[in-house]
Amino acid sequence: MTTRKRVLVTGASRGIGRAALTRLREDGYQAIGVARTRPADLEDDADFHCCDLDDLAMTQELVTRLANTAPFYGLVNNAAIAHTTSLDDTRPSDMEEALRVNVSASLVCAQALVPGMRELGAGRIVNLSSRAALGKINRTAYSATKAAVIGMSRTWALELAPSAITVNVIAPGPIATEMFHTASPPEDPRTQALMAAVPLQRVGTPEEVAHLIAFLLDERSGFVTGQTLHIDGGLTTSNVRI
C-alpha cells in the first residue's frame, strides 16, 4: 500500500474540483480525479479517470475498482449539475438528473470508499453544497439537491464518527467558475445585485475553496464533523437576500 494518503475528487476537470486536485497533489496526497473528460492541460502523471457521474452504474464500477486497489483516506464529492430554470419551467426529469449527480453519485462514492477508511482507522469526507441551498431564484432542482447534501452529510457524520471518519460540507457562494459565469451572466441585473450584496465586494476563487477542502482533509481537523462551512465573502451574514 502506498504511504501517501489517497483522496478521490469528483468533478475534477475544472473549477473547484480542478483546483482541489491541484492543491491536494501539491500537499502530498495521492489525489485521484474523476470527471467526464480529462483536461487537455493536465499533467501526464496525474491519476485521472473519465466517468459520467450521471451514470450511477458506471460510477459504482469505477469507484469500487479504485477502492479495491488500496484504501482511500479522503473523498471530495464535488461533481454537480445546475439547472437554471424557474418553478414553472423545471421538469421532473431535471430534478431526477440533479438528484443523480448532486446526491446519489456522492452516496455511491461514499459507500465504495468508507470500508477502506474504516480499515485505515480514519477518514475524511468533504461534500460540496452551495449557498443556493438557502434559496435562490431559478434554482429549484439545484437548491433542493444541495440542501439534501447538507442533511445527508449530517447523518453520515453521526453514523461514521465511531470510525473516526469526519464528514463536512462546504457551501460556496459566488465563485469564479465556468458554472457560475454561465448561470449568472455579469450583465444580468440579478448577478449585479448579488455582487453588490457580497460584503467583500468580489467573487471567490476556486483556489480559496480548495484551501478550505485541504483544511478539512488535514489530520489536525479530526474534531470537526457534521458542519457546513459557507465560503461566500460574507454573503450569508448580509441582511440582503438575492
From TrEMBL:
Residues 5-173 form the Ketoreductase domain. Belongs to the short-chain dehydrogenases/reductases (SDR) family. PANTHER family: OXIDOREDUCTASE, SHORT-CHAIN DEHYDROGENASES/REDUCTASES FAMILY MEMBER. It comes from Paraburkholderia unamae. InterPro entries: KR_dom (IPR057326), NAD(P)-bd_dom_sf (IPR036291), Sc_DH/Rdtase_CS (IPR020904), SDR_fam (IPR002347). Signal peptide: none annotated. This is NAD(P)-dependent dehydrogenase (Short-subunit alcohol dehydrogenase family).
